[in-house]
Amino acid sequence: MAARAGLTTERLVRAGAELADEVGFEHVTVSEVARRFDVKVASLYSHLKGGQDLRTRIALLALEELADRAADALAGRAGKDALAALADVYRDYAREHPGRYDAARFRLDPETAAASAGVRHAQMSRAVLRGYGLTEPDETHAVRLLGSVFHGYVSLELAGGFSHSAPGGEESWAWVVDRLDTLLRGLPHHPEPHDAPNDAPHDAPHRADR
C-alpha cells in the first residue's frame, strides 16, 4: 500500500508541515498524516518511527526553509538594512506558515540540534550583529535579545494582540526594528577596520557560533 501510494519520508514530512499550517503544529499526528494519503497508520512506519520523529523532521524542515530565506534576504546587506531583513524573514514566515514557525521552535536533542539548520540561524544573527562591532558578551546577549523580541512580537501579532488598537502592527514593527538598531549602535563596539591598527586581528565574516 505504501509503495502504491508513492509514500516517501519527504512526502510525509511535507504533508505533516502543511497539516501544521492548517490545524496547528501541536495537532499533527501520524494518524492524521496517514489519513491524508488514505493509508493505514502502519504503512507509515517504514518511513517514520512515530509522532516524535515526524515532529522532529517537520522542525528540521522549517529551520532549513527559514535559514534559506534568511540567507537570501541578507545577501549584500549590512547594518540596519540587514537587521530589518532578518526580522522580516521571521515575521513573514510566521504569517505564511504559522504551524511550521511553531515547529521551528520544537525542542531538539543536542545532537540533532547541532546538525540542524539552527546553527545557520545563529551564525547569520551573529553576522548581522558583527556589523555593529559588538564585543563579547554583548554579542551573545544581543543574539538572545533579537530572538526574544522577534518571537515575542510575532507570537503576539499572530494571536491578534495588535488588532484592536492604533497604531497598526506594521507601524509598531518598524518602530521596534528602529529602536533595536539604535540600541545596538549604542553598545560598546570594536573599532571599524579602517580605524584599527594594521596588526589588529579581525574575526572572519562567518565564523562558527561559539
Explain how this protein is built.
This protein has 210 residues and is an all-alpha fold. Helices cover 60% and strands 0% of the residues. It has nine helices and no strands. The termini are far apart.
Key terms for this structure?
0% strand, single chain, mainly alpha, disordered C terminus
Helix content: 55-70%
Over the alpha carbons, how many angstroms does the gyration radius reach? 20 Å
Low-confidence stretches: 193-210
Main sheet overview:
none
Per the principal axes of the C-alpha atoms, what is the gross shape?
globular
Overall pLDDT metric: 88
- According to DSSP, the number of beta strands is 0
Q: Give the class from helix and strand content and strand pairing.
A: mainly alpha
Distance between the termini: 47 Å
Short description:
With 210 residues, the chain is mostly helical. The protein is 60% helix and 0% strand. The protein contains nine helices and no strands.
Topology:
Elements (H helix, E strand, L loop, with lengths): L8 H15 L6 H8 L13 H24 L4 H18 L1 H6 L6 H5 L3 H13 L7 H21 L10 H17 L25
